[in-house]
Write a structure and sequence with these properties.
Length: about 170
Amino acid sequence: MEEQVILVDVNDRELGVAGKLRAHREGALHRAVSVFLFDEEGRFLLQQRAPSKYHSGGLWSNTCCGHPRPQEEESAAASRRLYEELGVRCAIGPAFRFVYRALVAPDLLEYEYDHVFFGRYGGEPTPNPDEVADWRWVDSAHLRAEVRDRPARYSPWFVTCFEQVASLARELAF
């Protein structure tokens, strides 16, 4: 059975569920989670999405992302995806929410109400090769320059929220 996503309105009120691919083909607003992990030096843990992903394969992005399942809390979904993608278990907490819309393939439109989580992690991930092609720690200044100069190397949602993430991470001393 196809993975289901939770359809929402612009205030994050649930409207129902739909198959993940259908929601992306129709550009239906749905709930998502994104995790950003930082080490003790304040560096971001980024992943390069596996080339086999159904969209945005090969692009660099935040630590992990995904969709809550029906009846699943956003924090539980974020922790689940963190483990499924990178083999990482650590404490995370809610940081902010945002809505974005981006064409990610000729026939796929991401339209997500994204719940963003921050956490601190000092270990080395063990990535799932079906999800992650590569990973790296990168400092904020270097990342800001990369995103500015070469945004096409990054997922659209990452480019959309990076400045807000970097600003809040500084404010919260991550």
